[in-house]
Amino acid sequence: MTNAPPPPSSAAQSARTILTRLHEVMASRANAQGKLNQVVGIIGECLDSEVCSIYLLRDGALELYATRGLKQEAVHVTRLGLGEGLVGMIADQIETLNLDEAAAHPDFSYRPETGEELFHSFAGVPIIRRERAVGVLCVQHADPRRYADIEIETLQTVAMVLSELITNADLVDTAARTDAAAADQSAQRLNGQKLVDGMGAGVAVFHQPRITIEHTVAEDTEAERHRVYAAFDKMREQIDRMASQADFGVGGEHDEVIQTYKMFAYDEGWSRRINEAIDSGLTAEAAIERVQQRTRMRMRQIDDALLRDRMHDLEDLSNRLIRIVSGQMGTAAQMGLRQDSILIARNLGPAELLEYDRRRLKGVVLEEGSLTAHVIIVARAMGVPVIGRVSDVRASIREGDLLLLDAAAGALHVRPTQAVQDAFDAKLVISQKRRANLASLRDLPAITKDGVPIELMINAGLREDVAALDLTGACGIGLFRTEFQFLVSATLPSRDRQQRLYRDVLDAAGDRPVIFRTVDIGGDKALPYMNVEGSALEENPAMGWRALRLALEREGLLKVQARALMEAAAGRTLNVMFPMVSEPWEYEAARNLFVGQRAWLAQHNKKLPVAIRYGAMLEVPGLLETLDLMLPHLDFLSVGTNDLTQFLFAADRAHPRLAERYDWLSPIVMRYLARVVRTVVGSKVALGVCGEMGGRPLEAMALLGVGIERLSITPAGVGPVKAMIRSLDLAALRADMPKILAQPSSNPRGQYQAWAEAHRVDLGD
After folding, report:
1. pTM over 0.70
2. What is the DSSP string of 578-598?
3. pLDDT tens-digit profile of 557-610?
4. CATH code, domain with 258
5. CATH at 63
């Protein structure tokens, strides 16, 4: 943070004017109701808004406490439940609304006693106390218009001051919604999303209670500014120290995660926004919280999961900065874990997780979290199981409660009964025995009972994933997702950085093959540092400007990657695969680009691969219709079952209501794959499947049945799938497959399960 404060912005000056007047109101001898009446008048006047209203949480509902512009007889009469109407939605979701036509919103709820039918535009912000909405501040105007960002920011600043005023006046029931839950001593099961697999047991430890900001209005802005300067310096020292101490053994992509985290810590734009909030008249703590609230609002508006995860990193740093500036640094990590513990947090940044003793940390439960978050990459490297998207954890769990975490099932057992503990322990023992049995298969070949060898490979995307080759006994990497390096990086990875990664992977793999998929970005894997024109407007990003389509347009991106791959594979065989090929010409264009880069390197006397094998991914269903034209130019073909399935069913695989609706074992999928096999048979092209489908024993069995003999799957699936392969009479299955495909059951999964049971196939159940 620079030591020269920027000149106050117009937004800061406007907010300071309002805060100065509010400070006078708060210091006056008027009663609480009188102060609120003055507040709505000041805000309405300063923002030139015809209506300003304050709703406060009382007896479980939002009650209109003060208004300028609505009918006064509605005060203390109009009440809205949490989630009811626009005001209820703001409080329930802790979200800001800015509408030019309020009545057009689906959650609009008209209350005739207020007289609000005269007004069209509406903006509202939550009044927050201890991470919960205790009220709503809103403004309305007769003319349809959206309020300017400056006005919304001013409302958010005022809402922070109101939080202090109404809490000191004891106007809201801040604890009403938590007391009943806190008194609950019964066993519970909370459900979430598996982020890192595993099981763990320990006592509940809350990562860090949010700092409650008691004073929001600054007496001396320069003194507050210097407090923030000092806090920034201390925070950056902590981040630098943690980055230097982070130890995962051999390097990995988590190193780049930490570097990205450091980038946020040194971001001048962030510190400038905090300075502007101080200029508006807020204390250091309130200024940081003010900027953090703005960040949270932006997070809710961002559709891109990766960018949301970047914002989580910034929120992590905001929490750290508030703790430093307030002198309340007692995190659970710094106090030390005294026994086996399950960590509870709304969200975590990667640096915060690194502070914990890995010997005591048995699991992490997040209220938010996602598979692409930086902290998940670090947790996976640490071997700590994690589940996310667990709601109401603070209302359901108390510090010290016994917790049992089963990430595979997405389950958290709170204060479990003895029967649940016994079942958990039994599952853990079985899981450990099963892992031990599967580990014993590591050095045994993946050969069916009737002697058919199956190529069993792994999918990877991080440097440390290559270690799974030795751990699982897989025969190679059938899919190395090169985009992971792009996703965890703060900037576009240079050719040298890409080359180092690819060379490290090849060195670690030794004589085992590695198939590198060229960068697959766009769609749900957008890069915040790479602007793709029109990408934000795509209604169907999975079918939009992504993968090979994007790479062929951004030739420079693909050329750099081509050179990096070829130089990394110098003296070896390079296997390169292009994603989401829709038509033969796209594959030819990408292949020709690589051929051109090989010629360029040769002209410059660079050492080259001894051979380059080219492949394509079959993910777009229509490609099958011209696959015969491509086969003479292909060395191998991999079916990407994840995207292929969603395209076959026109069903977004990430949609929560559709995720489990369509089965991989549906005759639609299986008949399609059988057609692919028939088309490829007789050519020189090696055919395989990469994707989650091949990593499940039952689905893998079905794939072998239609003629697939190469699977590239998640490392965790190698053992169970190998056990299935070694117990399978493949000839018997292939003899029965025509009938299964011709006469599918209404329950196709049950049909395959019945066949496996009848033929004693090991599915690991």
Report:
1. no
2. ESS--SHHHHHHHHHHHHHHH
3. 889 999 999 999 999 999 999 998 999 999 999 999 999 999 999 999 999 999
4. 1.10.274.10
5. 3.30.450.40
